[in-house]
Write a structure and sequence with these properties.
Blueprint lengths: L5 E6 L1 H6 L1 H4 L15 H7 L1 E8 L15 E3 L4 E3 L7 H21 L4 E3 L3 H10 L2 E8 L11 H7 L1 E5 L15 E2 L11 H13 L2 E3 L5 H10 L5 E2 L16 H9 L3 E4 L3 H4 L11 H15 L4 E3 L18 H10 L4 H19 L3
Parallel strand pairs: 1-2, 2-6, 5-6, 6-7, 7-9, 10-11, 11-12
Antiparallel strand pairs: 3-4, 4-8
Helix pairs in contact: 5-13, 11-12
The site of zinc ion has 4 residues, from loops.
Amino acid sequence: MNGIPVFDGHNDTLLNLHLPNRGEGRSFFERSRLGHIDLVRASEGGFGGGFFACYTPNPEDDGWNEESALTVTEDGYEVSGAPPLDPEYARDFADGLVRDLFQLEKESGGALRVVRTADELEGCLREGILAAILHFEGAENLGSAPGALETYYEAGLRSLGLVWSRPNVYAEGVPFRFPSSPDTGPGLTPAGRELVAECNSLGILVDLSHLNEKGFWEVAEISEAPMVATHSNAHALCPASRNLTDGQLDAIRDSDGMVGVNFAVAFLREDGGESEDTPLETVVRHVDYLVESVGINRVGFGSDFDGAKVPGVMKDVSGLPRLLAALREAGYDEAALKKLAHENWGRVLRSTWRG
Ligand SMILES: [Zn+2]
């Protein structure tokens, strides 16, 4: 690995490898033309690791998928709300992804490690070992009481999104809409409040990406940890429901939290569109805006690799050095680049985790 290692707030690589129609049987350990992250391209791109999401898609038999639920509107789009998941299905599916991650760790022969402490994370970045954080994107798999969290914590879970873009027993996620405010529905349930407290007491990061605005403000009120959106952008530049308003950014700054800049073109572009013909300058503009809003110590990356369409010039994880070059060109010095690339994640995780 050469250059500055990039540690990143979000990827959907586990799902991409897991679903045969997505990963098409590619291996994490061999270079592929499919997907965004494998070990070979990760090393080329200086990818030091990141949050590996366990995300459970709606099962085919409930008839919902992002494509069929999409309506194009006059000035954007609206994806009708995803129905809640059956908790037992969610648990089985997410447990499968958890097993996949530990299997990757085992098969990697020391090249990938699931990290549980800030020291482990820093050690991996120093030694060029790919650091993986076990993250749940949506808490459906915990069932209706947050008690199961402790078992997963012991297994290695260190980050949890209360919701994906659908409702569950804890909270409501934002449906994908453009243009739209993130204020799309009710806030946390009593079980959701309990879950936040449980995360605080175990030292599990509470991820706010995908949470609607009412839920966000309730977390701001009750959580003792820094406010973190692992993969979201600036609503002022791209008014998608998934992005953060200026008020939300203020709350993130005031809690000394952070934002991971999402490379999904739909959350970057002013027009909310899906065109891969999106220059890296668009990513740089979001970084600039977020740095201006929350400070250089509170911005990192949250690529959404293997889960979204990214700018064509980025291509995949091997394109990260091109982004760093674009940021350097835009005036970020080496110290600032290190903060964006991994140091800020290290700081926030150190203050969130117990150890
Ligand atoms: Zn996501």
